[in-house]
Each structure stands twice: as C-alpha cells, then as structure tokens.
Amino acid sequence: MTANRAWTLASYPSGWVTEANFKLVESPVPSPKAGEVLVKNLWLSLDPYMRGRISQQQSYAKGVEIGEVMTGETAGEVVDSKHPGFTQGDKVLTSQRMGWQLYGCMKGEALTKVDAVRAPLSYYLGCLGMPGLTAYFGMKEIGSTKAGETVVVSAASGAVGSVVGQLAKIAGCRAVGIAGGKAKCDYVVKELGFDACIDYKAGNLYRDLKEACPKGIDVNFENVGGEVFDTVLRLMTPFSRIIVCGLISDYNATEPYALKSIRSVLVNRVRMQGMIVFDWNQRYPEARRELANLLNQGKLKYRESVVEGLEKAPQAFIGLLKGRNFGKQLIKLA
Ligand SMILES: NC(=O)c1ccc[n+]([C@@H]2O[C@H](COP(=O)([O-])OP(=O)(O)OC[C@H]3O[C@@H](n4cnc5c(N)ncnc54)[C@H](OP(=O)(O)O)[C@@H]3O)[C@@H](O)[C@H]2O)c1
Questions:
Q1: 1 has a pLDDT exceeding 70
Q2: Residue 90, domain extent
C-alpha cells in the first residue's frame, strides 16, 4: 500500500479561493481501530458548499481549521474493516468528514454501503448522492409543484439543477433553466429535455426569461442568488414558491449582493424557504431508491465533469466556483 496523501487547509481565502490556500501532505496509511473501517477513496466529490467551510463566517456546519484535511465526501472501497457490518471490497459512500485524501478510517456508522452494480459508484456522489437528494427533497417538500406550473432553476446544467428540471418535467411542469453559455443551455434543452434554457451571460436575462415564462414563474429553485435571483423575483406569480438552495454567486464576494426586487415576495405573497438537505437524512434511502428507478428507466439523464488525480483538487474546486465545470464535478482518485 502506498502512502496516504491529503489536502489540508493552509490559509482562509479572502474573496476568491486560490491554490495557495491548500497544502498537500503525505502520511502513513492509517489502521482502523475497533468499530472503524479503512476506505480507499476512488472518487472525491467537489461541491460549492466547501467554500462556506473555509470561510470564517458563521454557518450551519463547523468549518475546517487551518491544518485540517479539507472536508469532502468520497466514494470508495473497503480495504480493512474492524466493524462487523463491512468486509474488504465493499463499496461505500463516506461522510464529508473523510475529506480530500486517498485513504481514511471512519466509524462504520458514518459509511453507507452502496450497490455499484445498480449504478456506477461515482453516481452516488451526484444524481444518487447529496446533489440529487437536494433536488428531490427541495422539489417534493418545498416546491409543491402542480402539473402545468412553470418551474425555473438556475445553475441548470449542474449537479442539482439538472435533476430539478428533470423532476419538474416528470411532474408535468414547464421546466426553464438558467445557465452560463450556449453549450450548457443547448445541453439542458436537447439532452435533459427542459422546455427552455436562458443564457444569463447573453445580457438579456429579464427579456429572455419573460419570453420563456409567458405565464410567469410558479416555482423558483434558486441555486445562484445575486442578479440572476433578482431578475427571477420580478416574474414570480401570486402564491408562488421559492426554494433557496444555494447562492453561489455570493460565495466569493466580499460584499453580499443586495436584492432590489424583494418587494415581489410581498405583493405576490410568495412563500420562500431555505433548505439544507441533511434535514431529510432519515429519508435518504427513499430518495435514492426513487432516483435510481428514474435513472434505470432512462428518465433521469446525468453528466459528470471528471478531473483525474488528487493533486488537481484545488484547481478543479476553483474551476467549479467559476462555472468551468459542466455537470457534477468529481476527482477520480484511482
Ligand atoms: N442547500 C443544500 O442543501 C444544497 C445542497 C447541494 C447544493 N447546494 C447549492 O446548490 C447550488 C448548485 O450546486 P451544484 O453542486 O449543483 O453545483 P453545479 O451547479 O454543478 O456547479 C456550480 C455552477 O454554479 C454556476 N455559477 C457559478 N458562479 C455563478 C455566478 N456568479 N452566477 C451564476 N451562476 C454561477 C456555474 O454554472 P453556470 O456556468 O451555468 O453559471 C457552475 O457550473 C450551489 O449554490 C450549492 O451551494 C445546496
């Protein structure tokens, strides 16, 4: 077995993340203690929430301390087990505490055994993982969509947004995406089957969105915030719903964007609710089962953006925050 390698936090970013905020360290591969399992990580998930974990602002979860391994979920294989529920070769999904590293020990209770025959292992970090579950619970529990309604989702080609729009279509809604650039918009309509997708970088977001949503917006699944969200607010219908899932355009900003159109929430009696996916963690098996069924029936399309090698993780993470990913961002570790 080779040595373990891990990315640790070297400094807190101020504004945009840089590669200098991380440090690659080498250490011996750890041995599991009683109740623990040693996992060889095969896939590392890179996600926008990680920016919040290396910010010193207060959030819903504890941040990474200087010198600690960067937080992150992985999918991997059991190589040694001191827990009765796991044996060598089992494929598992780890918790975010595993982090950006090649090997790690975790308590068996923090691992989820997955069926890598039903779907490729990496999918458990994407459409069958945290982003897919976010789309599922946001739409089902907060969106309360009815057939015929118009659903808008930003970051539409990404890990969460792509599933949101496809679930909207399955529910009989009109699905309209917002994404950056023609290639992403073409993919959202032609491959994922949305009714329309607006390129917010083209400079006519309000006009284009109004045209794509002639009856207004009944459900907005917000992934981006900032000017995109401000524009969507202007088109909300009376008694519409907003799921505040993410505000990625603000994650690297030193000053938060100030919304100008919040009045729309008042005059339209809009119900706006923030969500954090782990509030539904007791129901993850139900959501995974439903999403896997849709995948197996060909009703859920999914795309990955794969970078090879742990050493490229900081660079790929910065790329994700700048929208350079096209689909779920992953690092292939082996
Ligand atoms: N609340 C929860 O429990 C939860 C769980 C998972 C994810 N999230 C949130 O959901 C959102 C999407 O996450 P994801 O994993 O699916 O990521 P993703 O969409 O796969 O990747 C992020 C995308 O955000 C877009 N983006 C970045 N900067 C932007 C900007 N300034 N303006 C507009 N768009 C920008 C880019 O797409 P374009 O090229 O199209 O701009 C980029 O590809 C994030 O805000 C994330 O924090 C929340």
A1: no
A2: 4-126+302-332
